[in-house]
Amino acid sequence: MTRHHLINGIQVPFTAEEEAARDAEEAAWEAGAFDRAMFELRSKRNKDLQDSDWTQLPDTTLTNVQRQAWMQFRTELRNITDGLTTVEQVNNIDYPDKPNG
Known about the structure:
- Helix content is about 55%, strand content about 10%.
- The protein has helices spanning about 15-30, 35-50, 65-80, 85-90; strands at about 5, 10-15.
- A two-stranded antiparallel sheet has the order 1-2.
């Protein structure tokens, strides 16, 4: 299907060169989909790790059970990207729940 663009309000079909350039842009965008998905996942993960750093300080009022739950949560976060190779896997990740406390 021929693509079009507007030039001075008139719909004009792409030239062969414009079609080829647009195809290359779309291929490059698609090729970067996994990297973008991983960036988003890592950003969320890194924020949750940073927000939970306080749970590992020795002077917190957490019980040993609570501290262990936070340690488990943080371990799951650090390992969350292991083995991911497709955008679908990244999008369907089972993100761990934050512990109470």
